[in-house]
Amino acid sequence: MKIAVVGIGLIGGSLTVDLRRRGYTDNIIGVENNLTHQNIAKLCGLVDETDTLENAVERCELIVLSAPVNINCQLLPKILDMISGTSKIVTDMGSTKSSIAEAARNHPARGRYVAVHPMAGTEYSGPLAAIGKLFDYKTAIICDKELSDSDALENIEKMLDLLNMRKVYMNSGDHDVHVAYISHISHITSFSLALSVLEKEQEEKNILTLAGGGFESTVRLAKSNGETWAPIFIENAEYILQVIDTYTEKMNLFRKLIAEKDFVGLKDLMEEANKIRKILN
């Protein structure tokens, strides 16, 4: 199968690594506006060549959207226009789904689109961040599967199986609620903590000297690319704002108990939080 990958960064690049190694494709065309990323992707063997979106869609059987989510939303209707009446398939790797689902909802070629969110990634970005086995044993969420043609869905499911991913199915709205709580708030918390520390600790050596493993693991996500995450926060704003309100409520509760030096209250609150062990262990 000849595939086009639109956006050759961490996700798109890592996808090409394993799809090639595992025999899903031996011909990959990259679509990338960043000339440096184009050259790196070709030099690293992530893609065989780069081309325009129009040419890549015409030449390929599968088109994978792995650009920022707002770009995916803009491109999907155009691609569906181009593949209408064909057996070509388009999928996306974005971490928000309601907006892109709406963009495709009434399109005559909607069945050729399969909405996917691989719950995998690192704090790094760009084609140099691409690694093999990024998706192994991670969860892939397929949204609104009933709106996809059976052959398109089956093909994408086979691709995810080849990547050793665990498939979960849900509708777009539920997906965006869940990722707001599980994924998006983690990034916002990390960005916020990094900003707080950078504002208070003007001396870099103090941060480097005193930062332990707990701080490093919490702030790791603050290294994430703003060009990727700003569109995600905007696209999923409705649910993210709900999460921020809940999170702020809990932070204020901790502040109150600490200000009151309420040892028992703090201990009880943390023991309540400890229940997460039963889920994550």
Can you walk me through this structure?
The chain has two domains: 2-171, NAD(P)-binding Rossmann-like Domain (Rossmann fold, 3-Layer(aba) Sandwich); 175-280, 6-phosphogluconate dehydrogenase C-terminal like domain (6-phosphogluconate dehydrogenase C-terminal fold, Orthogonal Bundle), CATH 1.10.3660. The model has no long low-confidence stretch (mean pLDDT 94). It has helices at residues 10-21, 35-43, 53-59, 69-83, 98-104, 150-162, 172-200, 204-210, 213-219, 226-235, 237-259, 263-273, 276-280; strands spanning 2-6, 27-31, 49-50, 62-65, 89-92, 113-118, 139-143, 166-170. It has an eight-stranded mixed beta sheet, with helices on both faces. α2 links the parallel β2 (27-31) and β3 (49-50). The chain is globular and about 65 Å long. α4 (69-83) packs parallel to α5 and α7 (172-200) crosses α11. By secondary structure, the chain is an alpha/beta fold.
CATH class of the largest domain: Alpha Beta
* CATH architecture identity of the largest domain: 3-Layer(aba) Sandwich
Helical proportion, percent range: 55-70%
Query: Number of folding domains?
Result: 2
- Helix and strand content put the structural class at alpha/beta
Provide the spatial order of strands within the biggest beta sheet.
Answer: 3-2-1-4-5-6-7-8
Tell me the series of helices and strands, N- to C-terminal: EHEHEHEHEHEEHEHHHHHHH
Could you please say which CATH topology of the largest domain applies here? Rossmann fold
Beta-strand percentage range = 5-15%
The count of DSSP E runs of length 2 or more, i.e. the number of strands, is: 8
Largest sheet: 8 strands, mixed
Which radius of gyration do the C-alpha atoms yield?
A: 21 Å
Under CATH, the homologous superfamily of the largest domain reads: NAD(P)-binding Rossmann-like Domain
- Name the poorly predicted regions: none
Tell me the span between the first and last alpha carbons.
39 Å
Number of helices: 13
Report the average pLDDT across residues: 94
Shape: globular
